[in-house]
Specification:
The complex is a heterodimer. By secondary structure, chain A is α/β, with parallel strands linked by helices. Helices cover 44% and strands 15% of the residues of chain A. In chain A, the strands form four sheets. Chain A has a six-stranded mixed sheet with strand order 2-1-3-14-8-15, with helices on both faces. In chain A, helix 18 runs antiparallel to helix 19 (412-428). By secondary structure, chain B is mainly α. Chain B has two domains: 3-45, no CATH class; 70-295, MetI-like fold (Orthogonal Bundle). Chain B has a two-stranded antiparallel sheet. The chains are: A alpha/beta, B mainly alpha. Chains A and B meet through helix 1, helix 3 and helix 18 of A and helix 1, helix 11 and helix 12 of B.
């Protein structure tokens, strides 16, 4: 019996450890030739796409293959969570795809570990003939640059703006807030018991936004010092928390369910999120058409938002980097960028696509508002998360502090000080 | 014994048992490839700072030292897991035994009850967790019932003081059917004559339970606890679906923390966590075996 128990323990541990298993091969060299002409030999490239049903990537395959008969695309649709899990596995010991959709929040870790090929030599410094620096806004370019390398092509972008119930604002004669004082006034005038509140999110996406809006940052400019407990940051999070303290915000936790439920049942009347959420609202709450608007999120000193989105990257282990780059470049053509909006409802990342009339249409769901222009305005000052290997430790520490603050377990200063100490310790290692 | 004798014995052994060796070679090979080699590789990784993407850097026992002395989240995860095991193993087997004893009576529709109690065991943990996530919702069934009685809503998963307990209840509900079936099978194998003899000697229900049922069930109880503790220490699905380890790490468990580190590509650190968990399970199993032997 004793041996049997040990044996079964061994099996269980093996199963546990096998999740960490894989070959210990080192990644291939990152150098790649400049693409000047079509590949002579037929090649197959694998593309992983996490967009789901409304993907703008899949429709590219047929016309791309017609343009490049020597390149066959092996397309795989994988959901967001699974893409991250599979990417971890294949990057460390399997056969990676040649092109993969990556969430920009994954980039700090992967970039620091050199997981993706540098697109600069592959592209000869240009994206469809336009220098990278001119193709994107400054923030967009910063989001895809690491150690002077371009590690992905930003395909759609995500920055935060304020979603608000315009019908209630009009009904109650509330002005759309542009600064924090006005936000507090509006939130107080809006809420009715458990209804019509501002959504409080105890996470780094939202917490960082308040800090940026007060002139603070998460890390110092050289990424060596944690500064999210600076006076500006403490003041910002204190204001954020005061929305909860004054009962004009709702702490949106796991047991509140999906946000869309709160949007539909009236618990939420204001929240901060990216352009992708417009598509979710349209499909999940069509009956609310005309009730919502988007505005630049109110700020204290300057507008601010995290900057994320989806990038198209080539894993460094791909042996078809040239063909992969051709596909990425095709996906980044103006017409195909516009389709990111048309098909996925997301915000295309190229400046030219963003300013195109097809994207800047009046949106009947948002009362005829040109909502993308608001997000574009937000993008001008948005900041990507710092590209440091220890990002997840910093993110965890900050999120934990935000949860402690929301639960009133610690004061803002105490929670941020403790989290900063933890994050600094991780950063120093 | 000479070399020739050894050789003859080996030849005889192969002739007699050759086909058996052939049969066991397949599972043995798969064990070596998929279990023992990954275990050894992981042991090596646990002694390295290794991401899988960059060259491994040997750090000796640093990962273990950091985990056991300096990592507050790991300490919290260890404590949470132990609480999960203690709570789960206090309620689950007891509930399973009570249910089994109830079903062991000649009640109508007993097979229907047996099936009903076992159904959650056959249901995917992810599905069960999703259902309980809905029940624990701020506007879910439990809070609706509370409000019907004029009581305030409870943050079943957002209150760090009760989030882990909420997950324990969901897990017990999912798992106690297994214990029920195992106990029921054991109860039905106890000879009726023992109870009849005890009754003739004037033993009441409690005495029968104390002196017949419990001793007869001892090996099964041990089995249930060993399997239960090993399983409970590896709790992951419920945490992943229902709480992601939060709020404030109040539901972070060892395997969830291991997963978190794996997702952050800290393969060396994650491997060290796996080996610490292995050591814990070995110690628990050893202690239980000792206790069982001493009582036997």
């Amino acid at each position: 019996m004793y041996k049997k128990v040990l044996f079964s323990l061994g099996i269980i541990l093996g199963l546990l450890l096998s999740s960490c298993g894989g070959a210990t091969t080192e990644p291939a060299a990152t150098e790649a030739p400049i693409i000047t002409e079509e590949a002579a030999e037929p090649v197959t490239i694998t593309v992983w796409d996490y967009y789901g049903e409304a993907t703008p990537v899949k429709p590219l395959i047929e016309p791309f293959q017609a343009l490049h008969p020597n390149i066959t695309i092996n397309y795989e649709s994988i959901d967001w969570d699974t893409t991250l899990e599979k990417l971890n596995v294949v990057l460390t010991g399997g056969e990676p795809p040649d092109v993969v959709t990556v969430d920009m929040t994954w980039i700090p870790k992967f970039a620091a570990l050199g997981a993706f090929a540098d697109l600069l030599p592959l592209s000869d410094g240009k994206l469809n003939g336009i220098p990278w620096g001119e193709a994107y806004t400054a923030g967009g370019l910063k989001a895809i640059t690491y150690n002077d390398q371009i590690i992905s092509a930003l395909y759609d972008f995500d920055v935060y703006a304020l979603y608000y119930r315009n019908d209630l604002f009009e009904q109650k004669g509330i002005q759309v807030p542009t600064n924090w004082d006005e936000l507090m006034t509006a939130a107080k005038a809006l809420e009715e018991g458990e209804l019509y509140k501002y959504e409080f999110d105890a996470d780094t996406f939202h917490g960082s936004q308040w800090i940026y809006e007060n002139g603070g940052t998460l890390l110092s400019t050289d990424n060596t010092k944690v500064v999210f407990n600076s006076p500006e940051a403490v003041e910002a999070i204190t204001f954020n928390d005061s929305l909860l303290v004054n009962s004009v915000a709702i702490n949106w936790t796991e047991d509140e369910g999906e946000r869309i439920q709160g949007v539909k049942d009236g618990r939420i009347a204001m929240f901060s999120d990216g352009p992708y959420y417009m598509g979710i609202m349209k499909s999940a709450a069509p009956e609310m058409a005309g009730q919502w608007r988007v505005a630049l999120h109110p700020y204290n000193k300057q507008p601010g938002s995290y900057l994320g989105g989806t990038g198209l990257a080539i894993p460094v282990g791909s042996d078809q980097q040239e063909a992969a780059w051709l596909f990425i470049q095709y996906a980044m053509e103006l017409e195909n960028q516009v389709n990111v909006y048309k098909l996925a409802g997301a915000a295309p990342a190229l400046k030219e696509a963003l300013s195109s009339p097809e994207v800047n249409v009046e949106d009947p769901y948002f009362g005829g508002q040109k909502a993308f222009s608001i997000f574009l305005q937000s993008m001008e000052t948005a900041i990507p998360f710092p590209y440091v290997r220890q990002w997840s430790d910093i993110d965890d520490a900050f999120t934990n502090a935000m949860q402690q603050i929301a639960l009133a377990e610690l004061s803002v200063q105490e929670a941020l000080d403790q989290a900063a100490a933890t994050a600094q310790e991780a950063l120093d290692q | 014994m000479t070399v020739i004798q050894h050789s003859r014995k080996l030849t005889y052994s192969i002739q007699k048992y050759g086909i058996s060796y052939l049969f066991i070679s397949v599972p043995l090979l798969s064990l070596i490839v998929f279990l023992f080699i990954p275990m050894i590789v992981s042991l090596w990784w646990s002694l390295n700072d290794y991401s899988g993407l960059t060259a491994a850097k040997f750090v000796g026992l640093n990962n273990y030292i950091k985990l056991l002395t300096d990592d507050k989240i790991f300490a919290k995860s260890l404590l949470n897991t132990t609480l999960f095991v203690l709570l789960g193993m206090s309620i689950g087997p007891t509930l399973g035994l009570l249910t089994a004893m109830m079903l062991n009576q000649k009640v109508r529709f007993s097979s229907l009850f047996r099936t009903a109690y076992y159904l959650p065991v056959m249901t995917s943990l992810v599905v069960v967790s999703t259902i309980w996530l809905m029940l624990y919702n701020r506007n879910g069934l439990f809070n609706v019932v509370l409000q019907e009685f004029g009581l305030p809503k409870v943050g079943w998963l957002s209150n760090p003081d009760i989030a882990l307990i909420s997950i324990v209840f969901a897990s017990v509900w999912q798992g106690f059917g297994f214990e029920t079936v195992v106990f029921l099978a054991a109860l039905q194998s106890i000879p009726r004559e023992l109870y009849e003899a005890a009754m003739m000697d004037g033993a009441g229900a409690w005495a029968q339970f104390r002196y017949i049922t419990l001793p007869a069930l001892r090996p099964v109880i041990l089995f249930v606890y060993i399997i239960g503790i090993i399983g409970s220490y590896q709790v992951f699905d419920q945490i992943f679906v229902m709480s992601s380890g939060g709020p404030v790490y109040s539901t972070s468990t060892i395997v969830y923390y291991l997963f978190d580190k794996f997702m952050d590509l800290r393969l060396g650190y994650a491997s060290a966590i796996a080996y610490i968990l292995f050591a814990i399970l070995v110690i628990f199993s050893y202690l239980q075996m000792r206790i069982s032997r001493e009582r036997a």
